[in-house]
Amino acid sequence: MHFMNALAERWQRADSLLCVGLDPDPARLPAHLHERPDAILAFCRDIVDATADAVCCFKPQIAYFAAARAEDQLEDLIRHIHERHPGIPVILDAKRGDIGSTAAQYAREAFRRYGADAVTVNPYMGRDSIEPYLEYADRGVILLCRTSNAGGSDLQFLDVGGEKLYERVARLAADEWNASGNLGLVVGATFPDEIARVRQITGDMPLLVPGIGAQGGDIAAVLAAGRSRDGTGLIINSSRAILYAGDGEDFAAAARFAAQATRTAINRCR
To answer: What positions carry a catalytic annotation?
Structure first.
């Protein structure tokens, strides 16, 4: 199924705009997993199984797996999600950005090796750096636009011909770059005014919104600024606040409680 169709179906079926980010820090895994060679897989798999009915998608962050030499566990995790929870899209958070020939290999890595349904991409090298991803017309390509970190303003707020650079990225993504209808944008929860501006530019394009939970983004402000006309349009990511809601053998149950509470808080504002 096309990523956009799968996402839209999941928004409705799960009644959820929540995305659980899978950022497994080995130093924060529960003690009973520390000696397992597949500790990262075991941790993330249990989180996934406990929270699947509360989410619209999952978002593993590739750096946490690669730094621990656990890329094989990432492959197994995404395979597990697809087999155990069919219909839930997986966004590989990789933020790749390079020249076309290298981007083609990164696209192959994301979509062929890992089997991700979508990938995050840095578009600031221009159109030819994202075109290899767009060739996978059934997969999602989610471009960095207005990121949640404070330093993003150093470049993303630069004036380019009468508009801010992040606004230009949003305009390109909504228009000439989106021939296959598979683009989305990353806009941080910590900047609701910019979320509203991106929504104004892009219509109903999906927005991946990191920054609630541990980063302090306000859920009500995000919904007011960014929901689409039908009350969806958002992929609201929470990682640490859900992953590390508990640190004992009942960590998955604690994560489930946190995920359900977050979904309820989001839906209350829709």
So the answer is: 95
